[in-house]
Design brief:
- InterPro entries: DUF952 (IPR009297).
- It comes from Streptomyces boncukensis.
- It contains three helices and seven strands, in the order βααβαβββββ.
- Strands 1-3-6-7 form a four-stranded antiparallel β-sheet.
- The longest helix is centred in the middle third of the chain and has 11 residues.
- Helix content is 21%, strand content 35%.
- By secondary structure, it is α+β, with helices and mostly antiparallel strands.
Length: 106
């Protein structure tokens, strides 16, 4: 399992198509983390000002249509087919937007 931090609104933008965030177009890959703790660190460092729910996609890399490289962390070189997302966790944040914990999202 690998993890990707995403604002919920971005994930829901085009639910009938594979997920392709702007970072894929700009950088050529979708950055991911190897564990939940790293995902919290990414959220805290890069998404503190994000408005609305912030999620962690739990991605089964064996179900991805795109290639994954570990350089040193996991990076997805292509769009994320939604069938590869095994679940989502919501990032719970404090009043200043700091990531504090993860909760199962249903």
């Amino acid at each position: 399992m690998i993890f990707h931090v995403v604002p919920l609104d971005d994930w829901l933008l085009a639910p009938d198509r594979p997920y392709a965030p702007p970072v894929l177009v700009n950088g050529g890959f979708i950055p991911c983390t190897a564990d939940e703790e790293e995902a919290l660190a990414v959220a805290d460092a890069h998404f503190r000002d994000t408005v609305g729910p912030l999620m962690v996609l739990m991605i089964d890399e064996h179900r991805l249509d795109a290639r994954v490289r570990w350089e040193p962390g996991p990076q997805i070189y292509g769009r994320i087919n939604r069938s590869a997302v095994a679940g989502m966790l919501e990032i719970e944040r404090d009043a200043e937007g700091r990531a504090r914990s993860l909760a199962v999202w249903s």
